[in-house]
Write a structure and sequence with these properties.
By secondary structure, this protein is of the alpha/beta class. Helices cover about 35% and strands about 15% of the residues. The strands form three sheets. Strands 2, 3, 4, 5, 6, 12 and 13 form a seven-stranded mixed β-sheet that branches. Strands 8-9-7-10 form a four-stranded mixed β-sheet. Helix 1 links the parallel strand 2 and strand 3. Helix 2 runs parallel beside helix 3, helix 4 crosses helix 5 and helix 5 packs parallel to helix 11. The chain starts with 7 loop residues before the first strand and ends with a helix.
């Protein structure tokens, strides 16, 4: 088992992601299977959390409503942690409920490895950067995003700069990150710390020390922002798109990127990647939704409405949000994880984290 992740530094940012979401609970097998595939005017989406707008004005809210208006196809939506959505789809494999699965790396690769996805190349996917889609067409990013941390701007005069600062006793009981192996952003804590500290062992040594200040597990990253905004937490993990969108109604949260002492702040892309579910009950409707999500109209709304980065490299928004997002990412080194290594060794990495932290 590799003791160190092999990571490559990306030369530049590539545009891509955002979301914010409208939730409609999916009621088991009540609708799926009541007619032949494609006959029923419905499509069921399982998605990683962090994309829903509590006020109903997010990217998912907008594009799902427009999709339904244009096609007559109702979108039934279920969200949860990245790993949670994959696990649910696995449990339902003999009675598939979802048509489209949208989740973060390495869980989209995990879903593919478990045979949950079927190949489909959405219209517009040729404009998506090669690193943000599967070569065999099993998944394509629909919105790009980057891993980050948040802090309470009211309680802290400035954002922390390094991982080492978070070991300060002033953060005891005031720091929390979502659970690796369950939440995509929680798993990202492992990936970034292994990159910044130079391997699994030094990263686990650090996370063991950090545990003294950590509040404890959280299956959902999106729930940490309200706590940080209120001052219950001073620091938490997150991602740029989700936290930028949340900051519109949570003015006390700011985005930052930890650096190792003496190093530069770093991050990596965490795109929301979408795949057509194998044996989906409404395959044709799923294809239509994927085409729509990658269409120019939907992609143009990614920054202005969702607060994220378009997946298509030919869509270059100039709205106020896009300008502000560019400023947030300025000076941050973007590296590219070895997703094949992470996919192959994720269980071992999570087990090492559990052992180091006593979780």
């Amino acid at each position: 088992m590799p003791s160190k992740l092999l990571l490559r530094t990306a030369a530049a940012l590539t545009g891509s992601l955002a979301l914010a979401v409208s939730l409609t609970a999916c009621g088991g097998s009540a609708t799926a299977g009541s007619g032949k595939a494609g006959e029923e005017k419905v499509v069921t989406v399982y998605s990683a959390d962090g994309l829903k707008s509590e006020k109903g004005d997010g990217w998912y809210d907008k594009v799902f409503a427009e999709f339904t208006k244009k096609t007559g196809i109702e979108v039934k939506y279920v969200e949860g942690g990245s790993g949670e959505m994959v696990q649910r789809a696995v449990r339902e494999k003999t009675n598939t409920q979802a048509d489209v699965l949208i989740t973060l790396p390495p869980f989209i690769q995990q879903a593919d490895g478990k045979g949950l996805l079927q190949a489909y190349t959405p219209q517009g996917s040729e404009k998506v950067n090669g690193a943000n889609k599967a070569a065999d067409g099993k998944w394509t990013s629909v919105v790009n995003n980057y891993f980050g941390f948040i802090y309470n701007k009211k309680e802290l005069a400035e954002a922390p700069k390094t991982w080492e600062e978070l070991l300060d006793p002033k953060f005891k009981g005031k720091l929390q990150y979502s659970t690796p192996g369950v939440a995509g952003d929680g798993t990202a804590v492992l990936i970034k710390s292994m990159h910044d500290f130079g391997g699994k062992e030094p990263a686990m040594e650090y996370l063991k020390k950090l545990q003294a200040n950590n509040v404890g597990p959280s299956s959902s990253t999106s729930k940490l922002a309200p706590k940080t905004d209120k001052g219950e937490l001073l620091v938490a993990n997150g991602d740029v798109q989700m936290n930028f969108a949340q900051s519109k109604s949570m003015p006390n949260i700011g985005i930052w990127f930890p650096a190792k002492d003496g190093g530069k702040p770093t991050t990596f892309a965490l795109p929301y990647a979408a795949g057509l579910v194998d044996k989906a009950p409404h395959t044709e409707n799923g294809k239509k939704l994927l085409d729509y999500l990658l269409g120019e109209e939907a992609q143009q709304l990614v920054s202005g409405v969702g607060g994220g980065f378009p997946a298509r490299t030919d869509v270059k928004p100039t709205d106020a949000n896009a300008v502000e997002l560019t400023k947030i990412m300025t000076g941050v080194e973007v590296f590219e994880p070895n997703w094949a290594d992470i996919d192959a060794n994720l269980t071992a990495y999570v087990d090492a984290w559990k052992s180091a932290t006593g979780s």
